[in-house]
Amino acid sequence: MQLTEALLKYQLAWPHMHYFLAVLCLVAAVYKLTFILLKRKSVLKSFDAFPGPPAHLLFGNVLEFKQDGTDFFKLLKWAESYPYAFPMWFGPSICVLNIHHPDYIKTILASTGLTFNILLTRSHCASFSLGNGLLVSEGQKWFRHRRLLTPGFHYDVLKPYVKLMSDSAKTMLDKWERYANSKETLELFEHVSLMTLDSILKCAFSCNSNCQTEGGTNAYIKAVYELTNLINLRMRMFPYHSDLIFHLSPHGFRYRKAYKVAHSHTDEVIKRRKEALKEETELGRIQAKRYLDFLDILLFARDENQQGLSDEDLQAEVDTFMFEGHDTTASGISFILYCLACHPEHQKLCRDEICEALQGKDTMEWWDLNKIPYTTMCIKESLRLYPPVPGISRQITKPITFFDGRTLPAGQ
């Protein structure tokens, strides 16, 4: 009898529950829309002094980027139309000021008393799969981690890496030799990317992955490319700026799957190293056995209070180094080779200089690097023309006034 009465009450209340949920969703939608409109109004006022390309009310300028290799030329065209700087909209309320003139950049870099928060928020950190590592941390945490990681980039630490990098390069060149003999074409960047990942794994983590010979079957490589593409897609799709919508979407499912693969890989690298060092209690004994790599320095790093990195911080720094390090390096190397191919006369000068420096050897060593000044200049010129990281993003914490009198308020 009691069960019957309970069921009857539930049936009577159910229509009212539907009504309540519908009203709740409507209120939430109105609140969100009001919030977006008020934020848009505030942003429009902040950028009132900076004209820019027309933007769609909902999608901003995102629809103008076709991801077909012409996007950079679109930015150049806008730069010609809007000297010094112009706003770019990523949705109805997210806008950034694209600064492209040296005088404006000088105002920012030379300003005193201004602090700059990195543009990526904590939610964006998760999106970029880097945790809160050196690339996206700020304040005292950044200073502490920067100080702890600095020893990892000392010349004495870097010198033994040259032989390991040469071995990785030889593996790549052996693959290219087969292409040359068969007269097949190849996508150079993919090979260089595998080579730089192989180098980082060997040098920074003492890990022989064989990723160059495994190629496209390497799960970590595929996960990194998947994450890169999905992050780019999320930035370009306004609805995906919502964590909830992205989480529930098919792309969000693919992202979490790739995220798990990438993190499992770095977890395994850390786990192996901890096991290898389990019997070691002094840093000096490690140095006596072999060269010191980046992961060793992370594991043994201590601040003035003798506190090291937490497991979470350790994971974030390893992810940052692996995820960001190999791809940008691969881009830089690929464009260097592209520039040399476009200018065979400079390529010949570099080849002759390197052959003279090697003196019959087939491997470049640390002390040979200062024997190739012309090649070094070509490398730096290529990096100037095609920088792997062509821009930096910051959020100002105080108002800033540029040389022409235009002012940008805090928070932009």
From TrEMBL:
Keyword Oxidoreductase: yes
MF terms (GO), sorted A to Z: aromatase activity; heme binding; iron ion binding
Alphabetic keyword roster: Heme, Iron, Membrane, Metal-binding, Monooxygenase, Oxidoreductase, Transmembrane, Transmembrane helix
Pfam families tied to this protein: p450
Record field: catalytic activity: testosterone + 3 reduced [NADPH--hemoprotein reductase] + 3 O2 = 17beta-estradiol + formate + 3 oxidized [NADPH--hemoprotein reductase] + 4 H2O + 4 H(+); androst-4-ene-3,17-dione + 3 reduced [NADPH--hemoprotein reductase] + 3 O2 = estrone + formate + 3 oxidized [NADPH--hemoprotein reductase] + 4 H2O + 4 H(+)
Membrane-spanning residues: 17-38
InterPro entries xrefs: Cyt_P450, Cyt_P450_E_grp-II, Cyt_P450_sf, Cytochrome_P450_Monoox
Cofactors demanded by this protein: heme
The keyword Cell membrane is annotated on this UniProt entry: no
Role according to the record: Catalyzes the formation of aromatic C18 estrogens from C19 androgens.
Family recorded in the similarity comment: Belongs to the cytochrome P450 family.
Protein name, entry field: Uncharacterized protein
Organism: Xiphophorus couchianus
